[in-house]
Amino acid sequence: xxxxxxxxxxxxxxxxxLYAILQLRSExxxxxxxxxxxxxxxxxxxxxxxxxWHGFELVAYTRLVAPKVSFAEASIxxxxxxxxxxxxxxGITLVEKSITHTLETYATNSIRIGAQLYLKxxxxxxxxxxQGEEFLEDGIPHVEMILEK
Length: 149
Fold this sequence. Notes:
Layout: E1 4-9, H1 15-32, E2 47-54, E3 57-65, E4 74-81, H2 90-105, E5 110-116, H3 120-124, E6 129-137, E7 140-148
Parallel strand pairs: 4-5
Antiparallel strand pairs: 1-2, 2-3, 3-4, 5-7, 6-7
Protein backbone atom coordinates (compact mmCIF):
# COMPACT_ATOMS: atom_id res chain seq x y z
CA UNK A 1 0.00 0.00 0.00
CA UNK A 2 1.38 3.37 -0.99
CA UNK A 3 0.95 6.14 1.56
CA UNK A 4 1.43 9.82 0.94
CA UNK A 5 3.01 11.55 3.94
CA UNK A 6 2.16 15.22 4.44
CA UNK A 7 3.69 17.59 7.01
CA UNK A 8 2.11 21.02 7.56
CA UNK A 9 1.62 23.89 9.95
CA UNK A 10 -1.93 24.53 11.13
CA UNK A 11 -2.36 27.46 8.72
CA UNK A 12 -1.30 25.27 5.78
CA UNK A 13 -3.98 22.65 6.47
CA UNK A 14 -6.88 22.62 4.05
CA UNK A 15 -10.43 22.51 5.39
CA UNK A 16 -10.71 18.89 4.17
CA UNK A 17 -7.48 17.89 5.94
CA LEU A 18 -8.55 19.51 9.20
CA TYR A 19 -11.97 17.87 8.96
CA ALA A 20 -10.37 14.44 8.39
CA ILE A 21 -7.99 14.96 11.34
CA LEU A 22 -10.78 15.96 13.74
CA GLN A 23 -13.02 13.16 12.47
CA LEU A 24 -10.35 10.48 13.02
CA ARG A 25 -9.41 11.85 16.44
CA SER A 26 -13.08 11.84 17.47
CA GLU A 27 -13.62 8.33 16.09
CA UNK A 28 -10.76 6.87 18.13
CA UNK A 29 -10.17 9.05 21.17
CA UNK A 30 -13.80 9.85 21.97
CA UNK A 31 -15.95 7.04 20.53
CA UNK A 32 -13.67 3.96 20.44
CA UNK A 33 -11.98 4.74 23.77
CA UNK A 34 -15.30 5.89 25.26
CA UNK A 35 -13.68 9.04 26.62
CA UNK A 36 -15.49 12.33 26.79
CA UNK A 37 -12.88 15.09 26.71
CA UNK A 38 -12.10 18.38 24.98
CA UNK A 39 -10.02 17.30 21.98
CA UNK A 40 -9.89 20.79 20.49
CA UNK A 41 -7.61 22.31 23.12
CA UNK A 42 -5.98 25.27 21.38
CA UNK A 43 -2.69 23.45 20.77
CA UNK A 44 -3.41 22.57 17.13
CA UNK A 45 -2.75 26.15 16.01
CA UNK A 46 0.70 26.06 17.66
CA UNK A 47 1.67 22.66 16.23
CA UNK A 48 2.82 20.92 13.10
CA UNK A 49 0.69 18.09 11.74
CA UNK A 50 1.96 14.85 10.20
CA UNK A 51 -0.54 12.90 8.14
CA UNK A 52 -0.46 9.66 6.15
CA TRP A 53 -3.01 9.41 3.33
CA HIS A 54 -4.17 6.47 1.24
CA GLY A 55 -6.01 8.15 -1.57
CA PHE A 56 -8.50 10.49 0.09
CA GLU A 57 -8.53 8.60 3.40
CA LEU A 58 -6.53 9.73 6.42
CA VAL A 59 -4.73 6.62 7.63
CA ALA A 60 -2.50 7.97 10.42
CA TYR A 61 -1.79 11.25 12.16
CA THR A 62 0.27 12.97 14.86
CA ARG A 63 0.48 16.46 16.25
CA LEU A 64 4.02 17.78 16.85
CA VAL A 65 3.87 20.32 19.64
CA ALA A 66 6.39 23.10 20.24
CA PRO A 67 8.32 23.33 23.50
CA LYS A 68 6.51 25.15 26.32
CA VAL A 69 3.05 24.31 24.95
CA SER A 70 2.33 20.89 26.50
CA PHE A 71 5.67 20.39 28.29
CA ALA A 72 8.96 22.28 28.65
CA GLU A 73 10.25 20.00 25.87
CA ALA A 74 8.84 19.50 22.38
CA SER A 75 6.15 16.83 22.31
CA ILE A 76 4.35 14.37 20.08
CA UNK A 77 0.66 13.90 20.70
CA UNK A 78 -2.63 12.66 19.28
CA UNK A 79 -0.77 9.65 17.84
CA UNK A 80 -3.37 7.73 15.89
CA UNK A 81 -3.80 5.06 13.23
CA UNK A 82 -7.21 4.52 11.68
CA UNK A 83 -8.83 1.29 12.94
CA UNK A 84 -9.13 0.17 9.31
CA UNK A 85 -5.33 0.28 8.88
CA UNK A 86 -4.04 -1.17 12.14
CA UNK A 87 -1.65 -4.11 12.23
CA UNK A 88 0.22 -3.02 9.10
CA UNK A 89 3.19 -1.33 10.82
CA UNK A 90 1.97 2.16 9.91
CA GLY A 91 2.08 3.27 13.56
CA ILE A 92 5.80 2.42 13.75
CA THR A 93 6.55 4.51 10.66
CA LEU A 94 4.33 7.28 12.02
CA VAL A 95 6.27 7.51 15.29
CA GLU A 96 9.66 7.26 13.55
CA LYS A 97 8.73 10.12 11.19
CA SER A 98 7.24 12.11 14.09
CA ILE A 99 10.47 11.82 16.08
CA THR A 100 12.59 12.90 13.10
CA HIS A 101 10.34 15.86 12.27
CA THR A 102 10.09 16.97 15.90
CA LEU A 103 13.86 16.91 16.46
CA GLU A 104 14.46 18.84 13.21
CA THR A 105 11.54 21.29 13.38
CA TYR A 106 12.19 22.38 16.94
CA ALA A 107 16.01 22.00 16.83
CA THR A 108 15.93 19.95 20.01
CA ASN A 109 17.46 16.77 21.41
CA SER A 110 14.58 15.78 23.66
CA ILE A 111 10.91 14.92 23.26
CA ARG A 112 8.43 14.38 26.11
CA ILE A 113 5.14 12.55 25.67
CA GLY A 114 2.17 11.67 27.84
CA ALA A 115 1.71 8.05 26.75
CA GLN A 116 -1.29 5.88 27.41
CA LEU A 117 0.06 3.27 29.81
CA TYR A 118 -0.80 0.29 27.59
CA LEU A 119 1.54 1.76 24.92
CA LYS A 120 4.54 2.14 27.25
CA UNK A 121 6.46 -0.81 25.75
CA UNK A 122 5.65 0.42 22.21
CA UNK A 123 7.28 3.80 22.94
CA UNK A 124 10.20 2.18 24.78
CA UNK A 125 11.00 0.54 21.44
CA UNK A 126 11.82 4.00 20.07
CA UNK A 127 14.03 4.90 23.05
CA UNK A 128 11.48 6.69 25.23
CA UNK A 129 11.98 6.19 28.98
CA UNK A 130 9.17 6.47 31.53
CA GLN A 131 9.50 9.28 34.07
CA GLY A 132 7.43 9.82 37.17
CA GLU A 133 4.35 8.10 38.41
CA GLU A 134 1.44 6.81 36.40
CA PHE A 135 -1.53 9.20 36.32
CA LEU A 136 -5.08 9.31 35.06
CA GLU A 137 -5.87 11.66 32.19
CA ASP A 138 -9.49 11.73 31.09
CA GLY A 139 -9.99 8.43 32.95
CA ILE A 140 -7.17 6.63 31.05
CA PRO A 141 -3.89 5.58 32.76
CA HIS A 142 -0.91 7.51 31.33
CA VAL A 143 2.79 7.91 32.02
CA GLU A 144 5.15 10.67 30.96
CA MET A 145 8.06 9.47 28.85
CA ILE A 146 11.13 11.23 27.50
CA LEU A 147 13.40 10.59 24.55
CA GLU A 148 16.93 12.06 24.65
CA LYS A 149 18.97 12.05 21.43
